[in-house]
Automatic annotation (TrEMBL):
It is found in: Cell inner membrane. Its cofactor is Mg(2+). It comes from Thiomicrorhabdus marina. The keyword ATP-binding does not apply. Belongs to the inositol monophosphatase superfamily. CysQ family. This is 3'(2'),5'-bisphosphate nucleotidase CysQ. It is a peripheral membrane protein. Keywords: Cell inner membrane, Cell membrane, Hydrolase, Magnesium, Membrane, Metal-binding. Mg(2+) 1 binds at residues 78, 99, 101. Converts adenosine-3',5'-bisphosphate (PAP) to AMP. GO terms for molecular function: 3'(2'),5'-bisphosphate nucleotidase activity.
Length: 293
């Protein structure tokens, strides 16, 4: 697919939001059932990361829905990527990039800070992104060349099949990143399992406070001005960042590698990201990013 215009993105966006809501509500039901039973069946993937029935179910739901909506656009999803060899993937100029349950550890540990991430990649850049946190009830979305939005999703979305998605999106408010120059304390979005590199980065910032959150919702905190920076100096995959990156960028921020360039979504055998910073502004003197994984 050579070009995707604004009209096409606008047409797809409500449908993608609805797909994210459908997957998120299914995950929430499974999450609450598991919490009530005090038992979660967890398997380990080849890379040692955990995977649950909720990951697989949401992956299948999103995969089927996106294929039905755009049969000519291929998909890379976390749980189905093994279906497609790198030799096939490397020729895709446009594809959906999906993390059906970002924050599986948050799902297992019962924090509720997980999300559904759906992005459309075109020529190595995200051009549409939707992030839904079903337990925090926040839906974030953006398309290239437009503004980023947040919807506080209430109980009206529980029956997603009958939901008037366009009416819901009309309730959205535009979001913008904060201006750090106007504030005395840097707010740093971190997970509950950040390591020594992140601690050192924060010490270089001077006066700061942490805002703890899981999954891509950390990046969304930067996009809406609730945090100034999210440093990530541990392994992540392309599907972890793509949807939130376009939301951050259209809100005025950036997702930068050690060279100060925006992350790009080039197909590789591993689909791994470098270390990165999610920042509220690029004209601020941020401490350097460690260059070695």
């Amino acid at each position: 697919m050579e070009q995707i215009d604004q009209q096409q993105l606008q047409q797809w966006l409500p449908q993608v939001c609805k797909i994210a809501l459908q997957a998120g509500r299914c995950i929430s039901r499974m999450y609450r059932e598991n919490q009530a039973n005090e038992f979660i069946d967890v398997d380990k993937k080849k890379d040692g990361t955990p995977v649950t029935e909720a990951d697989r179910y949401a992956d299948g739901l999103i995969f089927t829905a996106l294929q039905s909506m755009t049969p000519d656009i291929p998909l890379v999803t976390e749980e189905s990527v093994a279906k497609f060899s790198f030799d096939e993937r490397q020729h895709w100029s446009t594809y959906w990039l999906v993390d059906p349950l970002d924050g599986t550890k948050e799902f297992i540990e019962g924090t509720g800070e997980f999300s559904v991430n759906i992005a459309l990649i075109h020529h190595h850049k995200p051009v549409l992104g939707v992030v839904f946190g079903p337990e925090v009830n926040h839906l974030y979305y953006a398309i290239q060349g437009n503004t980023s939005y947040k919807v506080d999703v209430g109980v009206q979305s529980n029956d997603v099949d009958t939901l008037d998605i366009k009416a819901l999106l009309q309730q959205a408010r535009a979001i913008r990143t904060a201006n750090l120059a106007q504030e005395e304390i840097t707010k740093v979005a971190v997970s509950r399992r950040h390591g020594g590199r992140t601690q050192y980065f924060m010490s270089e910032l001077g006066a700061h406070e942490t805002v703890k959150m899981g999954s891509a919702l950390k990046s969304c905190l930067v996009a809406e001005g609730a945090a100034h920076v999210y440093p990530r100096f541990g392994p992540t995959s392309l599907w972890d960042t793509a949807a939130s990156q376009i939301i951050v960028e259209m809100a005025g921020g950036a997702v930068l590698n050690a060279a100060g360039h925006p992350l790009e979504y080039v197909q590789t055998p591993t689909l791994l990201n470098p270390f990165f910073l999610v920042v509220c502004q690029t004209d601020y003197s941020w401490p350097p990013i460690p260059e070695v994984m």
